[in-house]
């Protein structure tokens, strides 16, 4: 790319020297002595007034891809813009804008003196640039501080134990599995042996594909098991005790040394944990994988394409295909760019669907009941809990439907997933309102879930009666929370 730097003062020279080597850079400088000095330092220089056509032609303005105007005089800027555009209407122009000058000032000067409108492609305000640089530096300081805290905590654990148990939530999703794998890598750098565990099931076909394709070593354990008790230090990622983890008892909570999560902190959580527990919970971040990527970047820990792919996919799922991104999420994407194996990613995102999942999807379609723009579907007794969420995602694609709820009975509980694309509804709040008192419910604005113990429903005489009672209760409570009357 051919770049013309107009002005060989302190700023112009610094810009040219920074670009030299990667780009074809020419400085245009009016002062003879300064031009000679620049040339002697190895820079390509054209001596002359850059606001004149003859000088620009000498510098081959017709071949330039970018022109950088470094002067701060508004009259000179306007004149130069007019001359540059007269000789190369397609060249991009970057202007270093003085503090007391606006784009409108330059445009008005051009109209008054030259009766023309000239587009400025890029503008840099020195004060704004400095403020942005300061903010970015402060953010890096914060990231480094967080990373050092984690590293210090891991070293502290290493002084009294050689192992770390990493706990995910009961039914881990891609964000949870990727985050656990990232923490394991960080812990291993200080010499800790790690074991990643969960208490429920990995049934969603994409989640199972992620485990298999990426070769993740995850172990299913039960509450009170030796696999938990033998570890003196526990870390939790993308989950919180008494939230979506059932394998830890009260005595285990005192061994929790690290919690990293992006969900809102649960009530009275700090009271249940050891005072020195490192808690990094950031509700403003949309994926725990983003937080873990920040740790890896700040600690300068090399990662392979397998972990990069896992973190990328974890972010992809929890940010709703990158539709909502915080500053931390965006930085994580930048960090992972170039490290992701897209062949592996494709195998994870589009795995073969299991027969069981296909049957549940079919059942959800056949059993759907429509209430205006709301669909409620009962998939009955199932073993694959994650298929309920997949069915909810699928039904939301039906024409005219904006809100979906799918439920089924898994073992001794009712599992519910809900989705919406209605911007007036916070489905997580709806789920909490509808089912919070008889079980647990919550989620985000567009996706939510609930779990209800069968309890009194077990008194039903047979499975048919049980399903009917459950469907009536779930439908009534959900529609009531939505402010709708029952009746198709």
UniProtKB/TrEMBL annotation:
<dbReference type="InterPro" id="IPR038763">
    <property type="entry name" value="DHH_sf"/>
</dbReference>
<dbReference type="InterPro" id="IPR003148">
    <property type="entry name" value="RCK_N"/>
</dbReference>
<protein>
    <submittedName>
        <fullName>DHH family phosphoesterase</fullName>
    </submittedName>
</protein>
<dbReference type="Pfam" id="PF01368">
    <property type="entry name" value="DHH"/>
</dbReference>
<dbReference type="InterPro" id="IPR003156">
    <property type="entry name" value="DHHA1_dom"/>
</dbReference>
<dbReference type="InterPro" id="IPR001667">
    <property type="entry name" value="DDH_dom"/>
</dbReference>
<dbReference type="Pfam" id="PF02254">
    <property type="entry name" value="TrkA_N"/>
</dbReference>
<feature type="domain" description="RCK N-terminal">
    <location>
        <begin position="1"/>
        <end position="124"/>
    </location>
</feature>
<dbReference type="InterPro" id="IPR051319">
    <property type="entry name" value="Oligoribo/pAp-PDE_c-di-AMP_PDE"/>
</dbReference>
<dbReference type="Pfam" id="PF02272">
    <property type="entry name" value="DHHA1"/>
</dbReference>
<dbReference type="InterPro" id="IPR036291">
    <property type="entry name" value="NAD(P)-bd_dom_sf"/>
</dbReference>
């Amino acid at each position: 790319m051919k770049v013309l730097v107009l002005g060989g003062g302190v700023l112009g020279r610094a810009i040219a020297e920074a670009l030299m080597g990667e780009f074809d850079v020419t400085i245009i400088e009016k002062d003879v002595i300064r031009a000679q000095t620049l040339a002697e330092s190895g820079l390509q220089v054209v001596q002359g007034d850059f606001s004149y056509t003859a000088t620009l032609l000498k510098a081959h303005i017709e071949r330039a891809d970018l022109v950088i105007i470094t002067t701060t005089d508004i009259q000179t800027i306007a004149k130069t813009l007019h001359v540059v555009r007269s000789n190369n209407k397609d060249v991009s122009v970057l202007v270093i804008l003085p503090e007391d000058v606006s784009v409108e000032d330059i445009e008005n000067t051009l109209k008054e003196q030259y009766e023309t409108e000239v587009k400025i492609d890029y503008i840099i305000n020195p004060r704004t640039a400095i403020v942005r640089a300061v903010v970015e530096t402060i953010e890096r300081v914060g990231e480094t501080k967080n990373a050092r805290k984690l590293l210090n905590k891991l070293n502290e654990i290493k002084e009294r134990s050689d192992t770390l148990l990493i706990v995910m939530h009961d039914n881990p999703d891609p964000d949870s599995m990727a985050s656990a794998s990232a923490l394991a890598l960080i812990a291993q750098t200080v010499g800790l042996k790690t074991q990643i565990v969960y208490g429920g099931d990995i049934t969603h076909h994409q989640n199972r594909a992620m485990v298999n394709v990426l070769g993740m070593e995850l172990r299913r354990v039960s509450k009170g098991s030796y696999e938990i008790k033998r570890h003196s230090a526990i870390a939790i990622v993308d989950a919180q005790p008494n939230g979506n983890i059932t394998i830890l008892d009260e005595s285990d909570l005192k061994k929790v040394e690290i919690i990293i999560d992006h969900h809102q902190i649960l009530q009275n959580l700090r009271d249940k944990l050891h005072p020195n527990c490192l808690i990094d919970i950031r509700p403003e971040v949309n994926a725990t994988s983003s937080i873990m990527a920040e740790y890896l970047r700040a600690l300068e820990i090399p990662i392979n394409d397998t972990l990069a792919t896992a973190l990328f996919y974890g972010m992809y799922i929890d940010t709703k295909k990158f539709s909502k991104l915080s500053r931390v999420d965006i930085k994580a994407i930048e960090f992972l760019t170039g490290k992701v194996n897209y062949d592996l990613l494709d195998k994870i995102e589009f795995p073969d669907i299991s027969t069981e999942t296909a049957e549940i999807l079919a059942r959800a379609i056949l059993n759907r009941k429509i209430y205006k723009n709301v669909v409620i579907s009962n998939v009955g007794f199932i073993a694959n809990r994650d298929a309920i969420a997949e069915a909810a995602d699928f039904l939301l694609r039906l024409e005219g439907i904006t809100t979906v709820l799918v439920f089924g009975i898994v073992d001794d509980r009712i599992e519910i997933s809900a989705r919406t694309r209605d911007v007036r509804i916070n489905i997580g709040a709806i789920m909490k309102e509808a089912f919070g008192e008889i079980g647990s419910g919550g989620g985000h604005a567009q996706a939510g879930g609930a779990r209800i113990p069968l309890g009194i429903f077990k008194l039903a005489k047979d499975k048919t009666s049980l399903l009917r009672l459950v469907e009536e209760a779930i439908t009534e409570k959900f529609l009531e929370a939505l402010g709708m009357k029952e009746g198709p």
